[in-house]
Amino acid sequence: MRSVNLLIAAGAASLMSTAAFAADMPSIMPPPPAAYAPPPPCCDTGGWYLRGDVGITSPRASNISNPLDSGLNITGPSYTGTGLSGAGLWDIGAGYQFNNWFRADVTAEYRNVSTVNGSVYGQFSAFGGAFSGVDNYRADLSSFVFLANAYVDLGTWWCITPFVGAGVGVAYNHLANFRDDGINTFNGLTAGTQFASSGDKTTLAWAVHAGLAYHVTNNFTVELAYRYLDLGSAVTGSTNFAYSSPGVLGTHAWTVNDLTSQDLKLGVRWNFDTPPAPAPYPMPLVRKG
After folding, report:
1. Which domains occur in the chain, in start order?
2. In the prediction, which pLDDT does 74 show?
3. What is the secondary structure of the chain as a DSSP string?
4. Predicted TM-score of the model (pTM)
């Protein structure tokens, strides 16, 4: 009987020891405290933001003209080409992210100097005679552009958001260093050069945008974008007809018509209304033994 009692006591002691050891072991994966909730997705942005861009331009113009084209009964002006060299641009702006698909901003942009080059051939009828001429011209064009833009974000995958947009505003075009070298057959073969003073013109501008935005963090976004921009036109200051005095033909200005540009831009946006994502909850402690 004593042996049976000893066996029961030993079994009870063993069970109590096992239960105490199990109570001391930590949980394999405790639920995270509320204060250490996982961070929100990286593309959860909203509120006010600042932006800045740099880029390269590929400008174009349809032609260059002046009032003498009609005033001298030019019968066949033929513009063999008006080209502009590429240049750089930079801008700054501010905007507001209304929700996860719509935002708007305003930008102020400076476009570096592009060189305008071209040629024109015309047959003239004036002063009871006829003559023809060829002119080669060049000038320097720079611009300030101010736009109000609206964008639609098309969804986000792996923190990358494609977007499209449109903008409208004004362009302030500055045309300088105009020079026209020409040869004509009026009163014999004559060569001449004319110069124009600098000129400024403010015109309507509009743009369309398309690009990709990468959300580095909740507050910081990098953009790569294409833009088509219409800049209106640009004019020189007054100039004199190359082969006569102002008293005969007066002064006139040259106009660069239908200025457009295809631009490639790299930009950043800093959203200062979205709080930083909270730190992730810590890994659980695992004790051995």
Report:
1. 42-271 (2.40.160.20)
2. 54
3. -HHHHHHHHHHHHHHHHHHHHHHHSPPSSPPPPGGGPPPPPTT---EEEEEEEEEEEEEE-SEEE-THHHHTT-S--EEEEEEE--EEEEEEEEEEE-SSSEEEEEEEEEEEEEEEEEEEEEEEEETTEEEEEEEEEEEEEEEEEEEEEEEEE---BTTEEEEEEEEEEEEEEEEEEEEEEEEE-TTSSEEEEEEE--EEEEEEEEEEEEEEEEESSSSEEEEEEEEEEEEEEEE---EE-TTS-HHHH-EE--EEEEEEEEEEEEEEEEESSSPPPPPPPPPPP----
4. 0.74
